[in-house]
Amino acid sequence: MKPLENQVVIVTGASSGIGEATALALAEAGAKVALAARRKDRLGNVKKKIEEMGSEALLLQTDVSVRAQVEALVAQTKKKWGRVDILINNAGVMLLSFMDKLKVEEWERMVDTNLKGVLYGIAAALPIMREQRSGHIINISSDADRKIFPGSAVYSATKAAVTLLSEGLRAELAREKMPIRVTSISPGAVATELAKHITDKDVFEVFRSHPPIEFMQSADVAAAVLFALTQPSHVDINNILVRPTQQAT
Fold it and tell me: Which of 203, 76, 87, 220 is CA-nearest to residue 151?
């Protein structure tokens, strides 16, 4: 029997990068996966891969910054499979910029996606998990949750909020002996599309000032997700900080 046999999983930001790799890894482990992202065509490719490996997938185009869409995502997942066992809040943006550039719209987008999107997911899935008296919420944060570098102020602030929010929720559930686990995962440098959306070109000078390193791949983070999910029910991995071997800070 596979470790996540018949578990129902929702993965946001599943159209590429960490989200796609996580969806594929969990499907390989036996889970039924609801795929959520804005790019419907890319989701279709992921759904096809999952079905080719003999697992079930549901495609739901979703913008996590819109509360009604997240609520619909969770409701439709429960309607199809009768439950929601795992929520992977992965969708995020990394729009690094120097504060004096005043890219307020980008600041708002990071807050809306990185933080509000996580809150909307929790608000929609937690009541179902409480009713089931089981579940696991995994929030993908970043190692930027504990450090600041030039250009990362707002991004780091949103990721710090995600990590602290995760711990706060975990503590509240533990206090009432509710058997629902909460994990935050804080990856370091990963080879994904995130940096391609940065519009402040001056930020890249920060990266160029550091010697090149070998980045992690999205599958490396997916392996950390699977590790947290497959622990015994009495074990809750609270936070995983995972970085490339060559990343010094």
Answer: 203
